[in-house]
Amino acid sequence: MWEFSVGLYMINIWPESLLYAAIYGAVESASIAVLGPIIGRWVDKLSCVKVLKLWLVTQNLSFVVAGASVVALLIHSSLKFTHFSIFILLVLIINLCGGIGVLSTLAGTILIEREWLLVISEGQPPELLTKMNSVTRRIDLTCKLLAPVVTGFIISFVSLRASAITFALWNTVTVWVEYWLFTSVYNGIPALAQSSQRRMARLSQCEQEMNNKTLEEDSLLPVTDDSSKLEDRKCRKTISEKISEVPYIAAWRVYLQQEVVLPGLALALLFFTVLSFGTLMTATLEWERIPAYVIGIARGISAVIGIVATVLYPGLHSQISTVRTGLWSIWSQWICLLPCVAAIWIQNGFLSSYILMGSVAISRLGLWMFDLSVLQQMQDLVSESDRLLVGGIQNSLQSLMDLLAYVMGIIISDPRDFWKLTLLSFLSVTLAAFIYSNHAYHVRKHLFHFDQLLWGKCFVRKSILSLEG
C-alpha cells in the first residue's frame, strides 16, 4: 500500500515537481544501500524470535507514524505557505519513518528467503525449494496486486486523506496477525529453531576462536628492550586488522568472493530504473492526469503477470536449468521494454502513458523469473554461514542502484523530462543482460546450442528433399 501510495502523496503535497517523490525514494534506497550489510549481520547474530519481534514492531509502527504525518499534511495543505518549518518537519518524519520501515522489512525478507525456505526444504527433493521460492514470490505479488487496486479506488472515489487513514489503521491491526502467522510457522517446524540455535553456537565459537587467536599472536610477538617499537608494531597490526574486520568492509569482502557476483550485479542493475510502477513513474502518471484507479489497475495487471511468472518458473527451470532460465528471462524483459523507448517519440501524452504502463507490465514476466533464478543460484551456491550476510549485501547493492535512479530523478525532476529517465533505465537493463550473458557463457561455455540449430537445419533440408523426391 505504502509503496504505491507514497508517490501520489508526494506529488499532491507539492504539485508540478517530482522532487519530493524523488527525495523520498532516495532516502529509502540510501537507508538499505548504506545499512543493508549491517542489517544482514544483525539478523545473523540474533535469534529468529528476536528478529521477528523487532521486524514487525518497527515496520508497522514506522508506517503508522508516516501515514499519520501524511494525513496531517493533507488536512493542513497550506502549511508550506504559512508554517514552512512544520511542513518540512512532517516531510522529514515521513522520510525517516519510510527508511526505518524498509530496513525492518529487509530484515524479515533476509530471514525468510535466505534461511527459513532453505531450512524447510532440507532433506527434500531439489524441486521443492524451486516451488517454495515461486509460492513465496506469488504471495508477495498477490499483495502487490490487491493493495494498489484497493488504494487506487479509495483515492479516486473517496480521497487521498481517506487512503492515508486506511493505511495507518491497516498497519495497526495487521501487525498482530503477522506475528501470529510467523510464530505459528516457527513453532510448527522444529528445524527452524534448531537452525537458529546452530547459528548462535557457530557465532559464539567464531568469537571465541578470534579472541584466542589474538591472544596467541600477542604472545608470539618478539620481546625487545625497545618497548616503543613493540607498541608501534602492535598498533599498526591492530589498525590493519580492525580495518579488515569492520563489519561493512568484511561483509563486502565475503560477497565479492562468491560465485554469484555477476548474477547479483545484473539483478541489482535492474533496480536502476524508473520503469517499475515505483514512486517516480507513479508520480509522473499522476502528473499526466492518469486516474489513480487506472494506475492501480495497471499495477495490479503487472502483479498478475508477475504471478504468472512464478507459475511458469518451476516448469521452465526443470527443463532448461537455473542459469539458462535466467538468460532467457532477462532478454525477454529487455524485448518487452522496447515499446517504452518507442513511446518517447509519441507526442500524445495519454497514449504514451498507456504504452508505458503496458510495456512495463508485460516486462514483469521476464523480471520475476530472472529474480527467482538469481535467488535460487544464491541459495544453491552460497554456504550456510554466509547466506544471511550475502543476502544483506545483495539487497544493499540493489538499493544502491535504486538510490542512483532517485538521484537522477532529483536531477531530472521535471515530469516533462521523464523520457530521459526512461532511456537511462533501458540502458541499465541492456547492461544487466550483457553482464548475465557473460556469466552464463563462463558457466556453460556457450550461450546457444548451435549444434542443435544445425541439426534442425539439416532435418528441415532432408524433409524438403524427401518431399521433392
UniProtKB/TrEMBL annotation:
User: Subcellular localization, per the record?
Assistant: Membrane
Can the keyword Lipid biosynthesis be found in this entry's annotation?
Answer: no
Keywords in UniProt for this one? Ion transport, Membrane, Transmembrane, Transmembrane helix, Transport
Any one GO CC term of this protein is: membrane
Question: Which residue spans traverse the membrane?
Answer: 20-42, 54-75, 87-112, 145-170, 176-193, 260-284, 290-313, 325-346, 352-375, 387-412, 418-436
The GO terms describing molecular function are: iron ion transmembrane transporter activity
Q: How does it sit in the membrane?
A: Multi-pass membrane protein
Report the Gene3D superfamilies cross-referenced here. Answer: MFS general substrate transporter like domains
Name the predominant localization: membrane
For this protein, the record's InterPro entries field holds:
Ferroportin-1, MFS_trans_sf
SUPFAM superfamilies xrefs: MFS general substrate transporter (SSF103473)
- List, alphabetically, the Pfam families matched: FPN1 (PF06963)
PANTHER family this protein is in?
SOLUTE CARRIER FAMILY 40 MEMBER
Family of this protein: Belongs to the ferroportin (FP) (TC 2.A.100) family. SLC40A subfamily.
Q: What does this protein do?
A: May be involved in iron transport and iron homeostasis.
Protein name (record)? Solute carrier family 40 member
